[in-house]
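FAQ

Q: What does a record look like?
A: Structure on top, sequence underneath. For example:
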């Protein structure tokens, strides 16, 4: 479940052998766990460790590295500047780490957003489909990703010793086997309509359709959530972990203050492409899933 690395610096380099083992672990559905890799805050940045910096209705703050903009933040001139610098730094060190640890992905990794999550997850009011305390694989209704892998880096930055408690569920192949009978075809014309009405940012491919169904059906099935074999992991403050959240069944049960960086990878850049959700779903459904 966990593949542990003892590194304590974001700037470390890794031998070819260390990289190969880490890639096999990551693509094989393990969580790369760095229990000594902390993300340090300056004194000024420590002031940001409060849910009060959230804008109304937001549950986290997101940083767009291309536009260098923040979303979800309350409009405090000084804090916004400090927060943006901190999140840009996390985005940059996470990207460095991924490129150093998985150098075979270099040139293929695409920078996504960084989020800062200052709300306690346990007991947070949310809709069933947005409830990340239930096991799920990641798929997003508005942002199709056309088969690209989702690689996420997380660091627990809780200042008072509170762990981030996760569940890890069964391997992706088993999730697919379990939910295959429920994966219905999309309605004719629906995905074009969603794009046309700007419900989705880009066209929702069949891959995105089935991944979203998998995400939703997992969360909706209370019986599955109860009985499926799961492991509890306690990610303590000062630890970092890397996981392909589109294939690893996961849930976040409790914890407050985490930083998260998202990166995307085309499946053809993987060492073992047959472990991609795209390949596994195409095999299971007996058809190509990236249509146009
Ligand atoms: O906030 C967390 O710890 C993880 C939530 C989650 O499911 C995700 O970010 O994919
Ligand atoms: Fe998730």
């Amino acid at each position: 479940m966990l593949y542990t690395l003892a590194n304590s610096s974001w700037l470390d380099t890794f031998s070819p052998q260390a990289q190969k083992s880490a890639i096999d672990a990551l693509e094989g559905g393990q969580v790369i766990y760095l229990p000594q890799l902390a993300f340090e805050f300056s004194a000024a940045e420590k002031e940001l460790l409060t849910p009060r910096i959230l804008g109304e209705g937001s549950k986290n703050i997101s940083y767009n590295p291309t536009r260098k903009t923040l979303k979800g933040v309350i409009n405090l001139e000084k804090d916004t500047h400090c927060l943006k610098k901190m999140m840009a730094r996390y985005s940059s060190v996470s990207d460095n780490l991924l490129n150093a640890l998985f150098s075979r992905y270099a040139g293929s990794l695409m920078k996504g957003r960084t989020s800062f999550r200052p709300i306690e997850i346990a007991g947070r009011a949310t809709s069933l489909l947005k409830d990340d305390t239930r096991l799920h694989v990641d798929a997003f209704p508005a942002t199709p990703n056309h088969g690209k892998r989702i690689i996420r880096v997380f660091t627990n930055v809780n200042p008072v010793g509170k762990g981030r408690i996760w569940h890890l569920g069964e391997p992706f192949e088993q999730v697919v086997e379990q939910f295959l009978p429920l994966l219905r075809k999309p309605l004719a014309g629906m995905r074009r309509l969603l794009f046309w009405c700007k419900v989705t940012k880009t066209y929702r491919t069949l891959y995105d359709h089935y991944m979203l169904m998998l995400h939703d059906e997992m969360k909706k099935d209370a019986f599955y959530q109860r009985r499926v074999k799961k492991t509890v992991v306690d990610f303590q403050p000062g630890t970092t972990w890397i996981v392909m959240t589109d294939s690893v069944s996961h849930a976040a049960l409790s914890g407050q203050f985490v930083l998260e960086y998202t990166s995307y990878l085309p499946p053809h850049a993987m060492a073992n492409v047959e472990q991609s959700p795209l390949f596994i779903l195409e095999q299971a459904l007996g058809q190509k899933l990236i249509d146009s």
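Q: Is there anything notable about this one?
A: The chain has a mean pLDDT of 96.
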